[in-house]
Amino acid sequence: MNPENRANPGNLANPANLGNPANLAVAIAIAAALCIAPVHAQPPAGAAQAAFDRAVADFRNGRMTESVAEFDTLIKLAPDAAPQLWQRGIALYYASRYKDCRAQFELHRTVNPDDVENAAWHFLCVARAESVARARAALLPVGPDPRVPMGQVYLMLRGTLLPDEVVSAAGAQVAPQFYAHLYVGLYYDALGDRTRALEHISIAAADRFASVGGYMHTVARIHLDLLQKSRK
Predict the structure, then answer these.
(1) What residue segments make up the domains of the chain, in order of their start?
(2) Cβ density class 158-173: b for 16+ within 10 Å, e for less
(3) Model pTM?
(4) What CATH class does 1-143 carry?
(5) Tens place of pLDDT per residue across the chain (232 aa)
C-alpha cells in the first residue's frame, strides 16, 4: 500500500496518477496483460480501468460483495495486476471473506514487502478467521517503513507496545494522528474491545482527516458505521 495510492486510487490511465508507484505498477500490469493477449481476446480499451473504478465506487458506497466482484473482473482482464490490489484485500475483509483477505495481503507482500499496513490488514484477517494469537504468530515480516507511527503499529501488533504508545508516538502531526487512531481502533476491534475501537475509529473518521487519509479515511468511515450499527 503506497501512501499516495491510499490517498487517491485515481485513474490508472491518467498520467497525473502514474507517478504514484502503486498505480503505475497496476497500470503496467494491465498494459502487459493486454499486449500479451491475442487481438481477438483483448477486452475493449479502458475495460480494466472501468472495472477498477467500479470496484472503488462500490467500496466507497459500502457495497463490498459488488466491489470484490469488480476487482475479480479486473484480475480476469489483467491477471498480472492481482498482487497490486491491496484495495481488494480490504474489500474482502469487509465482505467477511477472511481467508481470501489473508491470501490477498500475502500476495501483495510479494510486490510491497516493507509495508506495515499490509501486515496490519493481514493480521486483522487472520484474527477474524482464527484468533488474535494466531494472527500474532502469523504476523508478516516487514522491511523498513519510515512513516510515523508505522513502526509503533507493528510493535503493537506483535504485542510489545501498548496502543496508547502508538497514539503518543504520532505527536501533533495530522497524518500520523490519523493512522495511529485508525490502526489502534482496528486493533482494539480485533481484540473484541468495541468501546475503545469506537473511540479511536470515531477520531480517525472525523472530517479533519479526510484530506490526509483519502481512501483510508473512507475505510475509517465504513468501519465506524459498522461499529455504530453493532451497538444498536
Answers:
(1) 1-143, 146-232
(2) eeebebeebbebbeee
(3) 0.86
(4) mainly alpha
(5) 765 556 556 544 333 333 344 455 666 566 555 554 454 455 565 999 999 999 999 999 999 999 999 999 999 999 999 999 999 999 999 999 999 999 999 999 999 999 999 999 999 999 999 999 999 999 999 999 999 999 999 999 999 999 999 999 999 999 999 999 999 999 999 999 999 999 999 999 999 999 999 999 999 999 999 999 998 7
